[in-house]
């Protein structure tokens, strides 16, 4: 597959598992205040260009590929051409999802609409989309409930809404089992926008629901940088909780300023230090999943700018991955971390109750003055981290 003439250590390759959605590089620059600023890029062209740039795969909503009003014959032709492009390039479709937010029928939600007919239609649309995803080889299925929420709490009982949401997920898990699809489902939390408030707004909310499902082993998370950052949360902490629970099934990488609308900027472009620690978390844990970029080029860009955005997203991740390796090999940093580890922060320095240990702790004598005087050297540790990121170490 042809590549850029300039290749270096940050040139992406398929083994890096970088993926993009059709809706990401296919974003034409439209926003709520203005029309599109660049032509729509066809799905087949996207596949070929992403492969040329070194990506591993492409993900899609059902309607990213197949228009809502397509006839069966049109649908089959579109899928045939798309599959041919995948075959020609070797690009994969690791993840699929359903657009349950664009059609006006979903204006009060899909799985949590007060209208039972809408909820049934959402199940129908999702089953058909799952069929399409499996036809294309997807093994992860994402649920972003963009319209699952309220503007006024007078509109619905949130307890009933959670029951409807749970019913839908249980139903679709059973459908996946019955069809032999072996999907892993991934819930994508978001606090607000486009609804005033969205159900399951954070990673913690979603985890809590998962353990009430009939098949919790099938359902995990697809957290997104921008969604946690919008709410002022530390994204790495949420991802760490998902990892620790064995529930990080997929991840959406982008960049975001806190307190803004969902900007979906190029990964690492707004908070490089936060992006660094996210990459460190994923790489140090040896997480094997897809690094999916759910973001898009600035509205200012032409089509070349779209491919600059895609290449830059992958390149930034690889640059930060190298910085992680430098951090992990830095003798001063590792010395500071070793000192902290000696104080009992290493893995395994945990408490497990026994009567004997309880009595030991109850009788233990602590030198509180010395403990109060002993600092943690976090300022030095953070400065060394910044020097690595600034490229002066």
Q: What does this entry look like structurally?
A:
This protein is of the alpha/beta class. The protein folds into two domains: 14-328, Divalent-metal-dependent TIM barrel enzymes (TIM Barrel, Alpha-Beta Barrel), CATH 3.20.20.150; 330-390, no CATH class. 47% of the residues lie in helices and 9% in strands. The protein contains 15 helices and ten strands. The strands form two sheets. The protein has an eight-stranded parallel sheet. Helix 2 runs parallel beside helix 4 (72-89), helix 9 runs parallel beside helix 10 and helix 10 packs across helix 11. It is globular, with a radius of gyration of 23 Å.
**What is the annotated CATH architecture of the largest domain?**
Alpha-Beta Barrel
The stretches of 5 or more residues where confidence is low (pLDDT under 50) are 1-5
State the end-to-end distance.
36 Å
The count of strands amounts to 10
Give the neighbour order of strands across the main sheet: 8-6-4-3-2-1-10-9
Helices and strands in order:
Elements: E1 18-21, H1 22-25, H2 43-53, E2 57-61, H3 62-65, H4 72-89, E3 95-97, H5 116-135, E4 140-144, E5 149-150, H6 158-179, E6 184-188, E7 197-198, H7 203-210, E8 219-221, H8 225-230, H9 235-244, E9 252-253, H10 272-284, E10 291-293, H11 303-329, H12 331-345, H13 355-363, H14 368-373, H15 378-390
Parallel strand pairs: 1-2, 1-10, 2-3, 3-4, 4-6, 6-8, 9-10
Antiparallel strand pairs: 5-7
Helix pairs in contact: 2-4, 5-6, 9-10, 10-11
């Amino acid at each position: 597959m042809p590549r850029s003439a300039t290749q270096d250590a940050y040139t992406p390759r398929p083994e890096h598992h970088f993926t993009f959605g059709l809706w990401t590089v296919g974003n034409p620059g439209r926003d709520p205040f203005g029309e599109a600023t660049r032509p729509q890029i066809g799905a087949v062209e996207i596949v070929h260009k992403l492969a040329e740039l070194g990506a591993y795969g492409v993900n899609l909503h059902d309607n990213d590929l197949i228009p809502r009003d397509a006839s069966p014959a049109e649908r089959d032709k579109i899928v045939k051409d798309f599959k041919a492009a995948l075959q020609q390039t070797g690009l994969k479709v690791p993840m699929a999802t359903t657009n349950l937010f664009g059609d006006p029928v979903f204006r009060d939600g899909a799985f949590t609409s007060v209208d039972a007919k809408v909820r049934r239609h959402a199940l129908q649309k999702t089953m058909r989309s799952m069929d399409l995803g499996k036809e294309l080889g997807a093994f992860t299925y994402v649920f972003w409930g963009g319209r699952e929420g309220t503007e006024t709490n007078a509109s619905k009982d949130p307890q009933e809404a959670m029951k409807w949401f749970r019913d839908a997920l249980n139903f679709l898990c059973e459908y996946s089992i019955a069809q032999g699809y072996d999907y892993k489902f991934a819930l994508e939390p978001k606090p607000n926008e486009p609804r005033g408030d969205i159900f399951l707004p954070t990673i913690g909310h979603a985890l809590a629901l998962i353990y009430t499902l009939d098949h919790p082993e099938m359902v995990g998370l697809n957290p997104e940088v921008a969604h946690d950052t919008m709410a002022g949360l530390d994204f790495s902490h949420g991802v760490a909780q998902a990892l620790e629970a064995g529930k990080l099934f997929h991840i959406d990488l982008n960049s975001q300023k806190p307190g803004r609308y969902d900007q979906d900027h190029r990964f690492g472009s707004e908070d490089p230090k936060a992006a660094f620690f996210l990459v460190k978390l994923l790489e140090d844990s040896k997480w094997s999943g897809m690094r999916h970029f759910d973001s898009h080029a600035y509205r200012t860009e032409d089509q070349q700018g779209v491919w600059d955005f895609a290449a830059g997203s992958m390149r930034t991740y690889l640059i930060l991955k190298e910085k992680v390796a430098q951090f992990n090999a830095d003798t001063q940093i590792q010395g500071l971390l070793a000192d902290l580890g000696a104080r009992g922060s290493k893995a395994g320095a945990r408490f497990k109750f026994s009567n004997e240990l309880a009595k030991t702790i109850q009788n233990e004598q602590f030198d509180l003055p010395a403990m109060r005087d002993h600092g943690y050297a976090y300022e030095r540790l953070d400065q060394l981290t910044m020097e690595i990121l600034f490229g002066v170490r």
